[in-house]
Every structure is written in C-alpha cells, then in structure tokens.
Specification:
With 219 residues, the chain is mainly β. It has a single domain (25-89, 99-144, 168-218), classed as Porin (Beta Barrel), CATH 2.40.160. Helix content is 11%, strand content 59%. It has two helices and eleven strands. It has an eight-stranded antiparallel β-barrel.
C-alpha cells in the first residue's frame, strides 16, 4: 500500500502537467498588441490615390487584439480575433464648390478589424513551436464618412446636391509566421489587400506587421 501511494504521488504531477499542456478540444482566450508598418505599394500606385485620405497613414500604427482559438487537434486550431485601433478617418467630403474645388475634413476615431485564422504548431524546437498562420481579415470597419456632391448646369450653377455614406473598408489575405513558447506567441507577417477604394484602379498593396499575444485563459 505504501509503495502504491508513493507511485501515485509520483505519477500525479506528471499527469497534471500533461493535462495542462494539452490543447486539443480546448478554447484559449488571448490578448495582444500589433504594430502595422507603412504599406508597400507597387510603383506608381500612390500617384493615382484619391485626394481624401492617405492610405499609408490610415493603415499603419499600433493595434490592440483580443481573440479566441479552438484547437481541433493538439497542433491545429481555428481562430477569430477582433482588432481595435485609434486612427485617421475621413469624416466629410464636400464637392459642392465650383470647378474642381473639394473641401474635406478629417479626424481620428476607433476602427475595427475582424480576423479569421487557421493556425498550425510545428514542434521543431526543443522548447517552443514554430507557428504558421493563414487567414482572412476584414479591415477598417467604422471608417464611414459623408460625401456631398453637386450637379451643375451648363452655366456652372449648382442645380442639385446629393449626400451619401462612403467608407474605406477592405478585405485582405493574412499570412504570418512566428515562435510560441508556453502562453506567449510572437509573429511577423503581412496583410495582402484585395480591391480597395484608395485608388482609381484595382490594385494591391502589402501591410507588414509584428505582433505579440498571450493566452490569458483556457476553457
């Protein structure tokens, strides 16, 4: 009986440690910070950008992330994150002036992003994992602004005005790679934009980023 008790006391901590390291069939709540670096454009794209907003300013800077990952397998998970940042938003565009005169106002506000990810852990290090992530991101939500346009007659007089709500929402593919140890993860990657409203023609730009996240709860 004494020997059995000693064996149980020895095996119990090992069992609990193994349980704690198990990710399969569990959710992990995580918090993190991200920094988006100035976008990379193809040559000439910025020359045809609209006059109302600077796409580089609106898509770079610090971001806060909160998300959850569900591990289907020990090393494979599905993830969803929400990002929040305080950034430049166009709030009003007034094209009711004569000729090509355009008046616009800008201010800063909260913008949101929604990210859907596939994650895989490659256990190639003695301590820690190589992380690979791919997904889809819905960026610049809450970037709506009011655009007012005029219709002119042949004498150049305003005969009608219309107002509409526009935005700088866009979708991007997301690829990243990094290192994870314990509850901490550090990643680097890129957002690859799809069609956006920043340019007169369809074009693509890349937003590099660095991020850190920490799993705060497992359930």
């Amino acid at each position: 009986m004494k020997k059995l008790t000693l064996i149980l006391l020895f095996l119990l901590p090992l069992y609990l440690a193994a349980q704690d390291n198990s990710r399969e069939k569990n959710f992990f709540l995580n918090l993190g910070a991200e920094y988006r670096i100035t976008p990379i454009h193809r040559s000439g794209d910025q020359a045809i950008a609209t006059d109302f907003i600077n796409p580089d300013l609106q898509n770079s800077g610090p971001v806060l992330n909160v998300g959850v990952d569900y591990y289907i397998l020990q090393n494979f998970s599905l993830g969803f994150k929400t990002s929040v940042r305080y950034d430049l938003i166009t709030t009003k565009v007034d094209e009711t002036g004569t000729g090509s005169e355009v008046n616009y106002e800008t201010e800063r506000g909260l913008m949101f992003g929604y990210h859907f990810n596939l994650n895989y852990h490659f256990q190639v290090f003695k301590k820690g994992d190589l992380l690979v992530r791919a997904g889809l991101s819905l960026l610049n939500r809450n970037s709506e602004y009011v655009r007012t346009e005029s219709t002119f007659n042949e004498e150049g007089e305003v005969v009608d005005t219309t107002s509409s709500i526009d935005n700088y929402n866009f979708t991007a593919n997301k690829l990243s790679v990094g290192y994870g140890k314990g509850r901490s993860k550090i990643m680097m990657g890129v957002y690859i934009s799809r069609n956006t409203k920043y340019f007169d023609e369809k074009t693509t730009f890349i937003i590099p980023f660095l991020c850190y996240s920490f799993d705060v709860a497992k359930f």
